[in-house]
C-alpha cells in the first residue's frame, strides 16, 4: 500500500502582517497557511527584517506582458504570469466595450483560466465586465460600441465565464432595473463611465450597486453645487476602485478619498503595456502608446495604465503617505472582502498561501501563490 504524499511546507521569517496587526516571527505554509507565530504586537519599523504581506488582489486588469484580455487564446495566461512577478496572486480579467461576438470570444477563452490556475501564474478569479453598458459621453479609452443592457445578452455572457464584477452607467434608460437584476445574481455592480448626476449614482447604490470603477476617472466630477458621481462616492460608498499610478489621480485627491471611503481599494487598470518597454500596444480594438510610464490614445487621452501592484504599494506609501499596513489592506484585504473571499487577502491559518515578501524599500523579494513560488529575486 502506497503511503499518501506528504505536502511540503515552506517557512518565511520577518514582519508578518496578520488581520490583527504585525507579528515579528514566522509563517509556515503549504498550499494553505498552517501557522503564523511570533511576537505580537510589534512595530515593523523598529527592525530591518522584510515585510511579509498578503498577495495582491487586482480587480481590474486589461493586460500585461504585451497581451490584452480581448485577444483570447493564451493572452490571459501571459497576463497572469506577468502580474504574478509583481506580487499579484489573484486578479479579475477585465474586458473592453466591443461588439457582442468579440466579448463572447474573450469570455470563452477566459473560462478555462478561471477554472484552474496555471503554474507560475496568478489565480484568475473571474471576469470584470467593463462595458458595453456605459455612457458614450464618458468613454475614456473604451471603443464606442456602447449599448443598453439587455437581459438576454447578460444571461449569455454569464453562461460563458464567471462574471464577478460589472461596470454600468446608471443614468442610461433601464439600467437601474438591470442593476437590481445583476446584483441579485451576486455580481458586484460598479458605477462607472458615467455622465450621470449625484442623484443617479445614489439611486444606483440604492438599487444594489456596491462600488465605483476607477474613482474620479470617466465620471462626473465633484462641484459644491453639482456633486456628481464623485460626490456620491465620497458621501455614500463603502467600496470603490482607485488607480494609484500618480497619473490618473493627484495624491491630494487620493487622500481626500481615503478619508471618506472606508474600504477604497487599489487597482491597476493595466494594459498590455504593463511590464513592457515604451511602444504601441493593443487595448481592445484601440491602439495605445506607452511613453515615460503613461499609456495614452493618439489624442492624448489616458488609456489605462502600465501600473503593477508592487508599484502601487510603493506609490501609496512613498507618495501618498499611507502606512505599509494601510496600503497592504487596500491591495489585498479590502478587494478580498469586496468579493466575499474569506480565505484570500489575509495571512491567517487556513487561508490560501498567497504571499508577497518585500524589502524595506518595498521591492518584491518573492511571491507565492497557493503555496507555489511564483517568482523570487
Automatic annotation (TrEMBL):
This protein's record includes keyword Lipid biosynthesis: no
Entry keywords, A to Z: Carbohydrate metabolism, Hydrolase, Metal-binding
GO molecular function: N-acetylglucosamine-6-phosphate deacetylase activity
Residue ranges of every copy of the Amidohydrolase-related domain listed in the record: 51-360
The organism's place on the tree of life at top rank: Bacteria
InterPro entries per the UniProt record, alphabetical: Amidohydro-rel, GlcNAc_6-P_deAcase, Metal-dep_hydrolase_composite, Metal_Hydrolase
Gene3D superfamilies associated with the record: Metal-dependent hydrolases (3.20.20.140), Urease, subunit C, domain 1 (2.30.40.10)
Pfam families: Amidohydro_1
SUPFAM superfamilies: Metallo-dependent hydrolases
Enzyme class: hydrolase
Family: Belongs to the metallo-dependent hydrolases superfamily. NagA family.
Identification of the protein by name: N-acetylglucosamine-6-phosphate deacetylase
